[in-house]
Each structure stands twice: as C-alpha cells, then as structure tokens.
Amino acid sequence: MTEPIEEVIVIGAGAAGLAAADALARHGIKASVFEKEAHVAEPWRQRHERLALNTHRDMSYLPGLPYPKGVPAFPPKAAVVSYLETFAEQRGIAIEFDTEVERVTREGNQWVAHTNKGSRRARNIIIATGHDKIPWMPDWPGASEYKGHLIHAARFGSPKDYEGKSVLVIGAGNSGFDALNYLVGAKTAMIYLAARAGPSILPKRIGKIAVQRFSRVTNALPVPVGNFTVALVQRLLFGDLRKLGFAPVKKGGISRLKEDHVAIAADDGAIAAIKAGRIKVVPSVTGFTTDHVVLADGSTVTADVVIAATGYRTGLDTMFAGLDVVDGKGMPKTHGDQPSSPAGLWFISMQPSIVGHFYAAGQEARAIAAKIAGQR
Known about the structure:
The protein is an alpha/beta fold. It has helices spanning about 15-25, 40-45, 75-90, 175-185, 215-220, 225-240, 255-260, 270-275, 315-320, 355-375; strands at about 5-10, 30-35, 95, 100-105, 110-115, 120-125, 135, 150, 165-170, 190-195, 200-205, 205, 210, 265, 280, 285-290, 295, 300, 305-310, 310-315, 345. This is NAD(P)/FAD-dependent oxidoreductase.
C-alpha cells in the first residue's frame, strides 16, 4: 500500500525546524515534524553546563515570541532549552519524536523520507538538521597513539574538568574561542592555541553594549565593506594580532562567513589572556607522537588535554546518497528559499550567519513558507 502524500515534512525540531513549522502554519499548511531525539533541544541539553549563546537575546528568538523578562543578555543553555520547549507548546507544533530519517530519495515528483519507523512521502521536504550535526576533526598522523586526552570541542564538558591541566586548543574559530573564553576562568596550567591563520574576532561587549546587536547593519553592507568594518573594529579594539603570534588573516570575516561557512569568533576574555601570557599562540598542528603534539614549524607542545575546535559536518551526504544536492563536504547546493533541483527540497539554517542562528532561521522560514504556499 502506497503511503499518503503529505504537503510538507520538516526534518529536525531545533530552532530552524520549529520556525519552519510555525511559518507554514501561518499559511494554513500543517507540516509533519520529525525529530530523532526524545526531546526538543536535545543537542543543547547534551552540551556543557556553561554553554550560552554568543548572540544577544534580542537577536536570538523566533518570530513573535521574545524571551521572557530576566533572561540574561546572552541566553544560557537552560534558558534556550526552556524557550524552545515553550515555543513548540505555544504554537501547537506536533513533533514526532524518536523518528530518525536515515535517507531521502526521489520517486517521480515526490520526495520519500525513509525513517526508522517506515517511509513517508511528501511534495516538499525541509531539512533543518543544522550545519553542526557531526563533530569533525582531521586524521592527524599519530593521533591514535597520543597518550594525552584528545577530544572535539563539542565534548568540552565543564571548565572544572581542566583544573591543573595543560590544554591545547586547535582552531581559532568560534568554537575555539568559546573554549578559550571558558578555560581562562578555570585554574588550568598553561593554555596553548594552535591556529593556521589569524582569527576574525569581535568582542561580545564594548562596555555594556553587546556588539552583536549591530549585526543586522553589518549584514546589510556589501561584502567588501563588511570585511573592512569587521577588520577595523578588530584592529581598534585588539590591536595587531600578529604581534601576539597569529598568522596573517587570509580572508575577510564576512567573506569567510559567506563562502567558507566559518563564523566570526566572539571574545570574552581570551584575547586579554593571550596578551597577559596566560594563553600562548603556537603554529598549526601537523601530527602527534606518543607524548607530544607536533607543530608546523617542527616544534612540539606537551598538553594533558587537546581540544580540537575543528568544525562539524552536516551528515547530509549520507542522507542524500546518490542525489546531486550536496557538495563534497555535505553542504547543500541550494539554501533558504533558493529553488532546488529537483523541486520541493529546502535547506534551512544550514550556514552560520552574522545575525545569529535564531534570527536567520526565522527569516528563512518565512521565505520558504511563502514559496511553498505560492505553489498551491
């Protein structure tokens, strides 16, 4: 018996998936929402206790539902989990939990989501599984023999776990600086930062002003002007980071964000710790021995813990095996309300944005819902 054809299936019940389901409902379209976990915001629940958004609360809510009074400027983990639960409940979004989509295929003019509970057909499928689904790190020579503790930044844990230990953070992107911002408040031994290129980084605050609140202005600028603005603010506030041991910046911050999907890092104490000698910047990592981390200049570092802040993969290459809809790194070839080929496949919030994940998800959800409604 052939499954009934649904109008829309949304895969993923995080901020982007919830925003998509809500936007569709405003057009009178009821979507089926699949979530592989047992709860809303499960990835947030599993992250470390100190985790908080780097985006201001005024830029971190979904359309029509601001954070309640009393939530800090940069919402912490518990506030985000509570917010997403409340949004789903208030908007009446029915979520099919423990439903994992293993692959998506195309049959005729329909999309088929093959789940652990059977197959479902739809005219449209919205992928809202995120660009940071699977932690990724390079296959460094000798890493498997290293006696120290090598982890991905996604498994950071608690800053208390690092007390008395020497730590090497690999990667000067957003997650690398997040780790450093937390580590400088712990009683660690020496902290090292290995980076291939200088960072694009802005402070969380200037005085009491959250810098991210100006992101919509920066986002509206032409890319070259945005690059110049970010570089100028960085230079005025932090000075020449090459004097701290960083390599030159190879590409502007906005260009890296849009072309390479690398978010601009947020500083909350790490740069001051580098200037004070609490953190030492070293060359990039090329491999490991049993006892040491080998650097690009041939020198070595000894660290009790190595944190690889080396990014994530989407996992979409497996989900869409055999379909020419993602590139070699699993990034979708279309995004937001851009039309896919074949039609009816939509990818939401699959790229980092200077305006923040929640704000961008809300904007993209509205655009996608309008396009789907226009097809009826």
